[in-house]
Amino acid sequence: MAEPLREVGIIGREIGIIGGGRVAAALASSLGEQLDVALHARHPERVRLSPHGPSVPVDADLALVASRELIIIAVSDDAIPEVARALAAQLRSQPRPAGLEGGVTCVLHTSGATTGARSLAPLLEVPGVEVGSVHPLLAVPSAAAPGYFTLAPFVIETSGSVAAERARALVEQLEGEPIELPDSTEETKARYHALATMVATGTVTLVDRAADALGVDAVQRAAFRDAFGRLAMTAAVNVSRGPGPEVLTGPVARGDGATLELHDRALEGHPVEGLHAAVRRAAEDMVDRGRQEEGGA
Ligand SMILES: NC(=O)c1ccc[n+]([C@@H]2O[C@H](COP(=O)([O-])OP(=O)(O)OC[C@H]3O[C@@H](n4cnc5c(N)ncnc54)[C@H](OP(=O)(O)O)[C@@H]3O)[C@@H](O)[C@H]2O)c1
Question: Which atom of ligand 1 lies nearest, measured to the CA of 42?
Fold first, then answer.
């Protein structure tokens, strides 16, 4: 028998989600077990919910979602302002719930690139609305199963205290781990997102380019992409164990100059030469700074 719906602290029992893609569906599947979730998508037939999750009503009508005190917008980054304008018009035209926090409606988007205040600006002009963003710092696939966000970091920034509390409660409900940006400026958020993208895109690109640069046939390339991918996983596990200079392995960490020269010669004139040199310089710089900090400590 399904568990009865329960009141979940400040986020209440009812949540509205706008979007029909990966993140909207994953949130609906993870939250729909215990909360009353209304999902609004412009093409409901395209929504791919997990077959292992609860059944969540997908409604093409914005009014139901707009009646919720916590609304999450999970559409393409470029579409957020347009959806915010439509939601603002909807909120102005319908009576608001007399809710937990004096009727404050909180609208959060899930993009890492901009603040809520910028992308959801039309909503800030509606009385009683606070905005913000909750950015899940992980790759979300189609039809992600319930629990997908467990232990995921979520970067939060908000325009007000009620939105901040609800955003934290939402992340707690998802069993994620909130990280708050030190300030909510556009520059901070853009820098954070560019760096997060550098990490994720960089890992995939390095692994793929490295397998390609071996110059082997397609079958071996696939095998080495897999092998280099596993190497990247072990390196990523090391990253979580301590600061870079302490957990780095390889010839830069050991100071094996002859091996480094051998590597430089092996990749001379090769398409990945620049990439390899940039990574080596960054690693040497990191190790030097680590030594300086150690010396100064
Ligand atoms: N996937 C991830 O790994 C991930 C991780 C962290 C954060 N995010 C963020 O989460 C948000 C959603 O990403 P996603 O991966 O779920 O994207 P997605 O799978 O590509 O889905 C995007 C959704 O946006 C809808 N959409 C686009 N334009 C719209 C409009 N004008 N009005 C209404 N709906 C519109 C699309 O609807 P149609 O189907 O009708 O075209 C589609 O359902 C983005 O801000 C993204 O940066 C994604």
Answer: 40
Q: Can you tell me which atom of ligand 1 is nearest the CA of 137?
A: 6
* Tens-digit pLDDT profile for residues 144-187: 999 999 999 999 999 889 999 999 999 999 999 999 887 778 99
- Close Cβ partners of 236 (under 8 Å, ≥ 6 residues apart): 203
> Sheet containing 14-18: which strands, arranged edge to edge?
58-59, 36-40, 14-18, 70-73, 105-109, 129-136, 153-158, 177-180
Predicted local distance difference test score (pLDDT) of residue 284:
97
The residue nearest atom 33 of ligand 1, judged by CA position, is 42
| Interval between CA 77 and ligand 1 midpoint (Å) | 7
Q: Do 30 and 53 meet the contact criterion of CB atoms below 8 Å apart?
A: yes
Q: Is 201 in the pocket of ligand 1 (CB under 6 A)?
A: no
Residues 6+ apart with CB under 8 A from 142: 22, 25, 48
Evaluate if residue 3 carries a pLDDT over 60: no
Q: How many other C-beta atoms can be found within 10 angstroms of the C-beta atom of residue 295? A: 7
Residue 65 beta carbon below 6 angstroms from any ligand 1 atom? no
User: pLDDT above 90 covers what percent of the chain?
Assistant: 85
**Separation of 18 CA from ligand 1 center, angstroms?**
9
- C-alpha 20 to ligand 1 mean position (Å): 7
249 alpha carbon to ligand 1 midpoint, in Å?
38
Summarize pLDDT for 79-101 with one digit per residue, the tens. 999 999 999 999 999 877 665 45
Residue type, 30: S
